[in-house]
């Protein structure tokens, strides 16, 4: 079994990390194809992968079993995500201690999105309101766990202003966040401005940009609307022109993301996190492009 190491040690080295994010399948049937995609990506030796945490019980079980398969069968460095949604402190303690006993040394600590059908996040009685509370809680139980936290180059949708979002990011980092992974963005200028603002707040931890290759115009419009990231006009109009040809859309999406990655690496980012949407081919093409 791959020895799980704190990701912050990798981010502190001179070579930028390349990591890939997966989300758990909706049912057990999808597990094998996801494990297959992860095995193909593993052949490119990403520095780590992460597995998102859903709002419902069955997705959570699948998230845990997919993480275990990736860690034990494919020998990947795995960072499970964990959210505050629907769990009391006691339940979160059981999950966190379980991760630790299973050998994980990294967790992406989040507040989480409200479950389907629920408009706003509601704190579970006996649970936490903010990711910073979860970060402090995990650190108090396992000081040696390395914690990723989320950052929003275009502001978290619920934050009244970028300033207040940066204030709460500082609280989250000071509570024990080791590095920031950003929400997806398609314009690097947005990321560079964000990086400056974060650093000028005195937040010194590494900031890893999150990059998503567009796979379909309809899907990316839905995703960007949900997370309130902007889709540049030039990308949207290029995608519209080839909309009826799924392979042309995919190629354009990968080319755009590869150009973003090349520019980010040239500007010294500590790593790149790829939102691969469980698709091995595009993730592999981006890893290869990043290493060229
Ligand atoms: C890299 C990444 C991975 C993700 N993975 C998942 C996942 O696996 N599962 C999932 O469900 N969702 C995931 N998300 C989405 C995330 O859960 C949502 O964006 C969620 O709405 C906010 O989570 P957070 O951890 O950023 O919350 P927080 O940092 O708690 O912030 C939430 C909001 O509250 C505000 N806030 C924070 N602290 C305070 C405070 N003390 N007082 C007042 N306001 C405050 C913030 O400004 C922000 O508006 C991910 C997002 C990213 C960027």
Describe this structure as you would to a colleague.
With 292 residues, this protein is an alpha/beta fold. It has 11 helices and 8 strands. The protein has a single domain, classed as TIM Barrel (Alpha-Beta Barrel). An 8-stranded parallel barrel has the order 1-2-3-4-5-6-7-8, surrounded by 5 helices. Helix 5 packs parallel to helix 6 and helix 10 packs parallel to helix 11 (280-291). The longest helix is centred in the C-terminal third of the chain and has 21 residues, at 246-266. The protein starts with 6 loop residues before the first helix and ends with a helix. The protein has helices at 7-11, 31-42, 57-72, 89-101, 131-141, 162-174, 188-200, 217-227, 233-241, 246-266, 280-291; strands at residues 17-22, 48-51, 78-83, 106-110, 146-151, 179-184, 207-211, 271-275. The site of flavin-adenine dinucleotide (FAD) has 24 residues, from strand 3, strand 4, helix 5, helix 6 and strand 6.
Question: What's the short version?
Answer:
By secondary structure, the chain is an alpha/beta fold. It has eleven helices and eight strands. The chain is globular, with a radius of gyration of 18 Å.
Shape: globular
Q: List SSEs in N-to-C order.
A: HEHEHEHEHEHEHEHHHEH
Task: From the 3D structure, determine the CATH topology.
Answer: TIM Barrel
**Count of individual domains:** 1
Q: What is the quaternary state of this protein?
A: single chain
| Helix content, binned percent | 40-55%
The count of helical stretches stands at 11
What value does the Rg take, in angstroms?
Answer: 18 Å
The CATH first-level class comes to Alpha Beta
The helix-and-strand class reads alpha/beta
Query: How do the strands of the widest beta sheet line up side by side?
Result: 1-2-3-4-5-6-7-8
Show unreliable segments.
none
Which range does the strand content fall in? 5-15%
Number of strands: 8
Termini, distance in Å?
A: 29 Å
What binds here, in terms of ligands, is: flavin-adenine dinucleotide
In CATH terms, what is the architecture?
Alpha-Beta Barrel
Overall pLDDT: 95
Major sheet, described briefly?
8 strands, parallel, barrel
